[in-house]
Known about the structure:
It is built from two helices and two strands. The protein is α+β, with helices and mostly antiparallel strands. Helix 1 runs antiparallel to helix 2 (33-55). The longest helix has 23 residues, at 33-55.
Amino acid sequence: ALHPNATKHEGAEAYVQAFAPMSMNVMRNVWGEDEAARVAPHINEALLREVKSRFGTGEVTLEWEAWCITARKP
């Protein structure tokens, strides 16, 4: 079954506080420690700039969907 949902944040700063650490973890897995260390000092500012360009300075709402699937062994 498909379950729509929305995640709301007070603003771009709250979004960055919630998602920047997760973004860095993903980058470490994809790029490796050296490249992630080079980017780490810049990620919050870059993410904040991008979120503000997409959502402005007000509330940030992310709409997403989750599929819930169950199965039985025949």
